[in-house]
Structure formats: C-alpha cells, structure tokens
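Exercise 7.
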Amino acid sequence: MTKAELKKVLVIEKLVAGHIKVAEAAELLQLSTRQVLRLKKTYITEGAEGFAHKNRGRKPAHTISDDVKKMVAELYRTKYDGSNNCHFSELLEEHESLSLSVSSIRRILLSQGIKRSDNEDASKHVSPVTVNRKPECFEIDASPYAWLEDRGPELTLHGIIDDATGMVVGALFRPTETREGYFSAMKQAIQQYGIPLGIYSDRHTIFRSPKETLTLEQELAGETAPLSQFGKAMADLEITHIKAMSLEAKGRIERLFGTFQDRLAIELRLLGISTMEEANRVLPKLIQKHNRRFAISPQQTESAYRPLPEGINLNHIFAIREYRQIGPGQTISYGGKVYTFAVKPTHPFEVKTVVEVRQTMQDELLVWHHRQAFALRETQRPERQPKTKTASPASPRKPAKNHPWRQPWKIQKSFNVASIHDR
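Solution. The predicted structure, written as tokens, is:
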C-alpha cells in the first residue's frame, strides 16, 4: 500500500474504535465528512485491503504489448533510422498502420536503450501569421546535402518558401547551386501561384552582379544599374529583390532546410530513390505532403500575388542575356557561330545596332528588342565582297639625258643690261 493509503487505514481504525470523531478524521485526512463516512463503511466491510487501488498489479487495457515495443524499436533501428520522434510517429501510421503518440514513441525508444538528440519539428514553434511575416514575399536559397545518403551523389536542393504561410512554392534538385536551378524554381512558383511583390535572397553572385559599373553596351541599351542575370529577370517581372545581409533576415528558408534534412532524406530512402532524376520526379508529392503538415492559413483569403500578364513567356524571361551588334546581312555572332533572323523583321536593323540576345534554358536563341522576341537560326558567315581595283598611279618616268630639263641653265650673251636702264 502507498503511504497515503496507510494513513487512511490508521485514521479510520481510530474512528471505528471510537478514539476520534468524524470531524477530526476529516480534518486529518483533508476530506469531507461524507467521504470519511464512505471510507469507514469500506473498512468495516472489506478491511484495510479495501483502501488499495483495485487495478494495482493489472496491466491497463490500452497498454502497449512487449511485441509491439520490440517491433517499434526494430523499425527505428532499420527502416526509419534517423527520424525524429514526431516524424517516426507519422511514418508508423502511414506505412505500418500503427498509431502511437509521440510521447509513447519516446518512452518505447528510451526503454529499449535508444537515445537521440531529438530536434523538435518546426510545427511546434510556428509563430502567428501576424508576426514577422511579410505578405506577397518569397524567400529563396539552396542547400547542398547528402539527400540520397549513400545511394547516390550529393545534390543541392533549390527551394522557395512563401513568407506569410510557410508554404513551399518551388523546389528542385541540381548537382550544385546554379542560376538555372533558381530560374526553374522561380518559374514553378510563378506558374502555380503568381508573381510576388518581393523576394529575399543571400548575396551570392548569382543574385548580385560583381560588376560595379555598366558596360558601354549596357549603357547604350538603356540600363541604369548593373544587375546579375537573375536580377534582370526580377526587374522584368517588377519584383523587388532584397539581398539579405544576414541569415536571420531569411530565417524561414533556413529553418525549412533544417526540417527537410531531418525528414526529406528519410522519405527519399523509403521510396528507394537513388538518382537526381528520380528525386525530382517524386519531389512535388513530397512537397505537397510537407505543406499539408506545416503550412498555415493566410490572413487574407484572396491571393496576394499578381497573375502573370497575358503574352509573357517565362522562357524568355528566365534566360541568359548578352549584348551584340547587328552585322552585315542582318547577322549576329554568338558563341563562335553566326546567326540570322528566322523570320525577316518588318523593319531591318541597321548595321552596328546594339541588341540584346537571350538564350533560354531550352537553348532557344532570340533577339529581345522593345519587348518583342525575334527568333534566330544558325547561318553561314557572309562572304566578304572583293574590293574593286582602282587604276594605279603611273610610275614616274625619268627624262632622257638629252632632255632640255637635263641641260644647265645659261644666261644669253645678247642680254644687254644697259637696255634695262634705258627702259
């Protein structure tokens, strides 16, 4: 019996023996007189054993069997190794049809001698939507990690998160952090949700031009500030691009990658993914699962993003841009090759006109001029026209020896100086 139960026995024994009154027993036990009378009746009919808990020594009906505990521990050591308690509980319910609370999981693993530093999921620390959440804003970054563990190469996950809802709006794997990866992720997000007013990134040279001054071609094209290729795409879409000075300024995307490294690698393992192509194929479904678990509802029901205007081709926006001069025969030199217009422009360009050449992610080459795209095709370098021969100047002729120019100049003897004076 417990100490409290023994105290009840001693007090009720004195009450039954008439040594104390009901009020005194109630005061000693901190109970009401009605409860004391009920205890007295129990003692008279059942004795001191009546005060012991009836379920003592019995297993609760909802107790977890030893077999289940062993199975849970074995699954954690093998199939779900590395998952945190919260994720492990979700995986057991999803794949094993076994519903266990997080606290039960923790007790089972501890009882089996399994300990881990359990990083709690971000869902337990979700801040209210009104705190430090910027509407109509994306946060973008990339995370290199062993997403495929030892089954494949290390990959870099490019991701974009909506700042107001915590929803992942774009993501894909690439071998390394690349401009093309960010272009593809932004294209995903805009096609599905719309154009944000702003975007937060770090100060990687993909986002920030290392050049501090404009080139002559950029000045002639009307540019006013040096922009990276990514920055030019944001300018075309009228998206304010903020380059953060610290990790805290884009903390939401940093925490997202922490959650992904804790969960996504295990999800890819369970699906048997071993290549980048397979990972990108299953990633959209895994992102949807993540958003259902972690994203929060926005304050405003209407969309906070601008729809993509009609007539805008995102393939032409997310492209590499360089400046070239129009050459003879409406040709352009690019990448060591010569191109001309696939369809002759209505108003041909003058020779040496500076134009912007864009190369899309689909390797389409075009001239972008006054918000119009002119497709290019490869051609042969125009032959140089031979110069017309002009008559060469006659070679100098030397006078003959008996030529008058060769004779010395002599004063005539008949020349009369006095006659000059007479005149």
